[in-house]
Every structure is written in C-alpha cells, then in structure tokens.
C-alpha cells in the first residue's frame, strides 16, 4: 500500500484524494435569500446531519478566491435561515446546473428555471420539485481553513407523499443522488446486505 503524507502533497492532490475516498457524499441543495431579497440555490456535497432526535444539519462552503464567503454561507449567516432540498434523480440535472457561480444579484431559481415553493417557518423558498425540503434556522458557524461550516436547527420537514408508506419514509421510493470523486454522481443501488445490529 502506498503512503501519501498530506504535507508532501499539493492542495489539489489532497482535495482529490479526500473527495474520492469520502464517497458517496450526500448532496444538500441549499436555498437561501440575501438581505437584498435575492433567492440563491446551490448544491453542497460537504453536507450531513450532526444530530437526529433534535435535528441539526450542516453544510460546508468554500470561500471565493478573494477570501470572501460565497452567497449561500453569507446569506445563511446574515439572515439566519436556509432550506435543504433533497436531491433525487428527478432533479439531479437541475441541481447540477445550479452549481454555476452566478453574480449575487442573480437567482439560480430564475436562471435555471427551478420552480419555487413557499416555506412555512423561514424566508428562503423551497424547491417545488424536491421530494423532501428541510427548513432550518441558523445555529452557529465555524471557520476551518478556507471553509465556513454552517449549522442549522431543523424547524420543519416537507415530505412528498410519493416517498411515504404508512407515514414513514420509504427507502425503496427515495432515489437520492450522491457525489463521487471528480465530476461524477451516483444513484442508489441497494445491496443485499442489511444492518444486523
């Protein structure tokens, strides 16, 4: 087995290895609204939950080359709210398009034809075609190197009846999409192996 000490590698090489090793990564498609009222939408594969019984979600956003925060992190910190829209195969192509780096005064919802749905507890809109939307209020953030890690308390879940069976989420119906290393995505292909303990 070959060893790759982090101190001997370029930033790009380190990034490539960690993004390929930590896979598949769930995608948080995060919507925010700026203080000026512009709706922003961007995908993050540095995303997960950190608490479940009292749900808290997190996403990690890298900085611009200038060192300034990108729109999503800035909006969440300045306005105190964001929505995570779960990415499934039906919205994967729209999600990928919204990774484009638009000017702060231009909305990805409008630029890429993503339909909005109103939220009930926060200002940012939900993605209407996402089967699950998770409304969050800002809890705290941590600066780590060139990234801002944003934590949010979940206020409410919106879940489509299409992925519910007897009131519970059905993993047979929920075809979530994840990120792999490089430009690649992956869909769910469940194994025969199931958790025993």
Automatic annotation (TrEMBL):
<keyword id="KW-0285">Flavoprotein</keyword>
<dbReference type="InterPro" id="IPR002563">
    <property type="entry name" value="Flavin_Rdtase-like_dom"/>
</dbReference>
<keyword id="KW-0288">FMN</keyword>
<dbReference type="InterPro" id="IPR012349">
    <property type="entry name" value="Split_barrel_FMN-bd"/>
</dbReference>
<dbReference type="GO" id="GO:0016491">
    <property type="term" value="F:oxidoreductase activity"/>
</dbReference>
<comment type="similarity">
    <text>Belongs to the flavoredoxin family.</text>
</comment>
<dbReference type="Pfam" id="PF01613">
    <property type="entry name" value="Flavin_Reduct"/>
</dbReference>
<keyword id="KW-0560">Oxidoreductase</keyword>
<feature type="domain" description="Flavin reductase like">
    <location>
        <begin position="20"/>
        <end position="168"/>
    </location>
</feature>
<protein>
    <submittedName>
        <fullName>Flavin reductase family protein</fullName>
        <ecNumber>1.5.1.-</ecNumber>
    </submittedName>
</protein>
């Amino acid at each position: 087995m070959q060893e790759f000490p982090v101190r001997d590698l370029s930033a790009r090489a380190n990034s490539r290895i960690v993004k390929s090793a930590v896979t598949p990564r769930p995608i948080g498609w995060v919507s925010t609204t700026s203080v000026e009222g512009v709706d922003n939408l961007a995908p993050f594969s540095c995303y997960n939950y950190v608490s479940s019984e009292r749900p808290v979600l997190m996403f990690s956003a890298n900085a611009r080359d200038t060192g300034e925060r990108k729109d999503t992190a800035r909006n969440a910190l300045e306005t105190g709210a964001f929505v995570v829209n779960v990415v499934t195969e039906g919205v994967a192509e729209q999600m990928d398009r919204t990774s484009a780096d638009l000017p702060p005064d231009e909305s990805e919802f409008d630029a890429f034809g993503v339909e909005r749905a109103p939220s009930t507890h926060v200002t940012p809109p939900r993605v209407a075609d996402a089967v699950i939307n998770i409304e969050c209020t800002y809890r705290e953030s941590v600066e780590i190197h060139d990234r801002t890690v944003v934590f949010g308390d979940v206020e409410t879940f919106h879940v489509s009846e299409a992925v519910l069976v007897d009131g519970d989420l059905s993993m047979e119906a929920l075809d979530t999409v994840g990120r792999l290393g490089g430009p690649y995505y992956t869909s769910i292909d469940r194994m025969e192996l199931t958790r025993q303990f």
